[in-house]
């Protein structure tokens, strides 16, 4: 595939998706001037972006109109816009799309496309069906949304229950440990950026059974040899598919016998990407944009690489509430103290703005920790999560809010309200 080169080097880039903070921060570290449109416009995003627009209603259909008001420059997207090819096509009509184009998404976002890639990499792909007819209802199969992200909506199949929002498929359940791989698919060839062990729900903070809750980086050499070889072959297979370029995330399992099982491919940066960036210090957003013909935008001074292991977790709100200045100030003070310990890399991110409405069990912020190895990083992450939990409980107690006995089950995204779940907060 020939990659067109722009006539002039752009100075601005637009980042859109459910949550733009992580990818925008990477682009800023790469020397770009960033404009974003997402569902949150969090406090830390406002501090680093040239402009940050919170799309309060009509997401994602309203994105093209919102982006049309921004300065010229290429556009790159985060999760889970791969599930909305029509929106991507509309966005690509107005400005260059520095991401996998909508016409190439079927390669990685359909069961048939995933099965072909698995065969090319000599990986297993679980048996998948378009109908539940004849399937056992004992939990040995899963019902999954065809257009999902971050594990949301995946449940053991025990028979019809309640109405589901979109088309589903049924997939045989496979036992194994969950992993994520991050690839950079450049014109010259593929590069495995890194792998991370994924920790899925059910979590103590209200996540669904298969939702992404946390991740920790591990050296690829710690994986079984057969898995390492399969990941190399998978990178070559991705590189050989027309239209697949830039940063791409892969979810896979490693069975107890050491067999690699392909589960999902996300044709954009995932939640684990920023962990790998902290390890080597290079802006992955800048590397991604280079894959589409845009060289480095200029000099930047990111924090220095901090080798070892990095871990990240999503913290959810223990009760429906509205963020006030006391909460934001306390979270910011904690973040500043931990960030100094982590060599300048933000220890807390996706910090809500004052006045943001936080649904019960909705995404609150991301917490990071570093260690010499994965075990140390995981332990440090647990300690920081506990500290954040203590802060939240103390804040709720002081303001007289009691945790409800039952979740409020908010599902809508009203004006001024954070969505209960966000594809952008997860892989």
CATH architecture label of the domain at 309-425? Alpha-Beta Complex
% residues in beta strands: 15-25%
| Helix segment tally | 11
- Number of DSSP strands? 18
Runs in which pLDDT lies below 50 for 5 or more consecutive residues are: 203-207, 401-416, 420-424
CATH topology of the domain at 309-425: Aldehyde Oxidoreductase, domain 3
Mean model confidence by pLDDT: 89
Structural class by sheet pairing and helices? alpha+beta
- Overall radius of gyration: 21 Å
What does the overall shape look like?
globular
Largest sheet: number of strands, sense, barrel closure: 8 strands, antiparallel
Strand order of the largest sheet: 13-12-9-10-11-14-18-16
Distance between the termini: 27 Å
Range of helix content: 25-40%
SSE order, one letter for each helix or strand:
EHEHEHEHHHEEEEEEEHEEHHEEHEEEH
CATH class of the domain at 309-425: Alpha Beta
Give the arrangement of secondary structure elements.
Blueprint: E1 12-16, H1 21-29, E2 33-38, H2 43-48, E3 51-54, H3 63-67, E4 75-77, H4 85-94, H5 106-109, H6 111-121, E5 128-129, E6 141-145, E7 155-156, E8 168-172, E9 177-186, E10 189-200, E11 212-218, H7 225-239, E12 246-254, E13 260-266, H8 273-280, H9 284-290, E14 309-316, E15 321-322, H10 325-341, E16 348-349, E17 357-358, E18 363-371, H11 374-398
Parallel strand pairs: 1-2, 1-4, 2-3
Antiparallel strand pairs: 5-8, 6-7, 6-8, 9-10, 9-12, 10-11, 11-14, 12-13, 14-18, 15-17, 16-18
Helix pairs in contact: 6-7, 10-11
